[in-house]
Amino acid sequence: MRRTALAVRWGMPVALFLGAAPLARAAAVPVAVAANSGNTAWLLTATALVLSMTLPGLVAFYSGLVRNKNVLSVAMQCFAITCVVSVLWFAGGYGLVFGNGGALQPLIGSVHGGWFADISRTALRGDIPQAAFVMFQLTFAIITPALVVGGFAERMKFGAVLLFSALWLIVVYVPVAHWVWGGGWLERYGVLDFAGGIVVHVTAGVGALVSALVLKERKGFPHTAMPPHNMSLTILGAGMLWVGWFGFNGGSALAANGSAAMAILVTQLGAATGALTWMGLEWIKFGKPSVLGIVTGMVAGLGTITPASGFVGPLGALIIGFAAGVVCFFATQLIKRRLHIDDALDVSPVHGAGGALGTVLTGVFVAARFGGVGYAPGMDLLRQVGVQILGVVAAGLWCAVGTYLILKLVQATVGLRVSEDQEREGLDLSQHGERAYND
After folding, report:
1. Percent of the chain clearing pLDDT 70 (strictly above)
2. pLDDT tens digits, one per residue of 417-431
3. Would the pLDDT of 42 be above 60?
């Protein structure tokens, strides 16, 4: 009986131990972590959507807005910028944004891993393939300098566009993206920018404004009417931008989850409210609502909701969209009609003002009482709004100085502006030897 009792007393622990030993040995063997197929599929889809915003969305939108003698020039610029930025992202741009800069990490990343040396089929970033993350972020790096094109459309040499865009990506976009998304000083301060209010829209808006000031106005502006040559093309491009923006904002969740779904929902509400607000203001002020007005209001709503999209709820989106329609409408009137600054395609009053406004309002409507996700520990409304303003001011100043210096460097080397005869003839023929319309 005693041996039976001992067997009962010690047999079970010994058996458990002996049974657990293989498990312990198995646990010591590294287990391969697989990518989450749902999240990966969504990010790949979002990547295609964001790239479609530039090609063909922005191409169609901008091509319709310029005069018919400059249609191919803006299309060519968007295509060429896509290619240049892709190669620069490969050469080290990605590492400078998302790499570990060591002691310089608050300011810039590292070129270590440039040429995608660390990117393989099995490398993961969280539960998604690192290659998918690299490509998704590349689409943001592409569209930002492509947006700047609208500030100097119809008057910059093609070679100058290429050199300017390459330098602008490295000097302006890369540092700001690192500050906000790559572990830089603004991210450490707690700035909220879900999908690019600061990184994309503030930088593009300021870059376009400085470019317009340095290159000066097109011949005949503002006394000669320069209406869009093809509003049907612009509407088509605007529709592509609207759809693509679901990938822009929803994809920034980096997962197929509730955050992505809410980002898409508030994106829709912000765009719709911005469009209706702009249309209403134009109707009141000029007596008729225009198609150009409603699509511009839509873009203003999209740009303004972008930084807030992953943090706010539907109520916040409606208010932000309404504010976008009002502020961007009057900013456009101020810049073009009062100050006579020839930001040809309204990049600064729409993207710049909208991005800044949305970034600041994110600090308000992130509050749980407005349906947002709530403030981070140690944050409240005043602190968060203060950080948001700091982010806008810091990025805006860096972009303004950087853009100005780059333009002066380009001017001193290859020259900035086409001649008067070339501008009169149109950039399609003078820069590319082609016509969009041969009838």
Report:
1. 92
2. 999 999 999 999 999
3. yes
Q: Are 331 and 353 in contact (CB under 8 A)?
A: yes
Confidence of residue 34 (pLDDT cuts 50, 70, 90): confident
Q: Residue ranges of the alpha helices (H) in 130-257? A: 130-152, 158-168, 174-181, 185-189, 203-215, 231-250
Q: Are 59 and 75 in contact (CB under 8 A)?
A: yes
Six-digit token pair at 292? Answer: 């150009």
The number of angstroms, rounded, from the C-alpha of 205 to the middle of its chain's C-alpha atoms is 11
Cβ atoms within 10 Å of 202's Cβ, excluding its own? 31
pLDDT of 347 strictly over 70: yes
Residue with tokens 């409507």: 365
Q: What value does the mean pLDDT take over residues 8-33?
A: 40
DSSP E strands, 12-55: none
Q: Are 151 and 351 in contact (CB under 8 A)?
A: no
| CA distance between the termini of the chain | 108
How high is the pLDDT of residue 119?
86
What is the rounded CA–CA span in Å between residue 66 and residue 348?
A: 17
Phi, psi of 435 (to 5 degrees): -120, 145
**pLDDT value at position 114?**
62
Amino acid at 338: R
Phi then psi for residue 263, to 5 deg, are -60, -40
3-state secondary structure of 419: coil
- For the four alpha carbons of 341, 345, 351 and 357, in that order, the dihedral sign comes to positive
Six-digit token string for 418: 């086409």
- Average pLDDT, rounded, for the chain: 92
Angstrom distances, CA of residue 166 to CA of 84, 96, 275, 369, 431:
7, 14, 33, 44, 19
Report the predicted TM-score, pTM, of the whole model to 2 decimal places: 0.91
Measured CA distances, 200 to 83, 264, 310, 407, 436 (Å): 18, 18, 16, 19, 30
Q: Minimal CA–CA distance to 345: which of 45, 65, 102, 38?
A: 65
CA triple 300-301-307, angle to 5 deg? 100
CA atoms within 13 A on the CB side of 250: 28
Q: Tell me: the pLDDT tens digits for 370-385? A: 999 999 999 999 999 9
Domains of the chain: 49-430 (1.10.3430.10)
Q: What is the mean pLDDT of residues 392-397?
A: 98
In the predicted structure, residue 10 carries a pLDDT above the cut 80: no
Paired strand residues for 128: 125
